[in-house]
UniProtKB/TrEMBL annotation:
InterPro entries: Flagellin/pilin_N_arc (IPR013373), Pilin_N_archaeal (IPR012859). The lineage of its organism: Archaea, Methanobacteriati, Methanobacteriota, Stenosarchaea group, Halobacteria. Keywords: Membrane, Transmembrane, Transmembrane helix. The keyword Nucleotidyltransferase does not apply. Residues 13-85 form the Archaeal Type IV pilin N-terminal domain. This is Type IV pilin. The chain crosses the membrane at residues 18-42.
Length: 143
């Protein structure tokens, strides 16, 4: 006597159509989601964002304050087409904007802000032509 039930071919054949049906439904749902996102313009809301830059801050002591120099060492080029302005901002209120007449900004170009107190956070802020902005680099003056 055998404890194993006899093999039934009908049971094996029923698995393949179920797997195929589930796979086809998953593909249809995925395709509908991608087409829906494209048709409704979901991707259009994603801005280009700030350019990827390599920036170094230099702090030059001037009495009790610092002159902060943000030097671009590499990365994407800042042009009139992809940028509204680039501003070096200190939390203490000082700021300096790179004039558009200086564009394109590339490796070796710098922006300077003077009269920054010790221990002040500074950041290089990029603003795009659509008004969106982002911080490209951050620093802090020595104490």
């Amino acid at each position: 006597m055998s404890a194993t039930p006899p093999h039934d071919d009908r049971r094996d054949r029923a698995v393949t159509p179920v797997i195929a049906t589930v796979t086809m439904v998953a593909i249809a749902v995925l395709l509908a989601a991608v087409l829906g996102a494209a048709m409704l313009g979901f991707s259009g809301g994603l801005g280009a964002g700030p350019p990827a830059l390599s920036v170094e801050f230099t702090y030059i002591q001037d009495g009790n304050e610092y002159e902060v120099v943000a030097t671009i060492y590499g990365g994407q080029t800042i042009t009139k087409q992809n940028t509204e302005n680039v501003t070096l901002v200190a939390e203490s209120g000082q700021q300096e904007t790179a004039l558009k007449t200086r564009y394109p900004l590339t490796g070796g170009d710098d922006i300077i802000v003077k009269g920054v107190p010790p221990g002040t956070n500074v950041r290089l802020v990029w603003t795009g032509p659509d008004g969106g902005s982002g911080v490209v680099a951050r620093g802090r003056t020595p104490f």
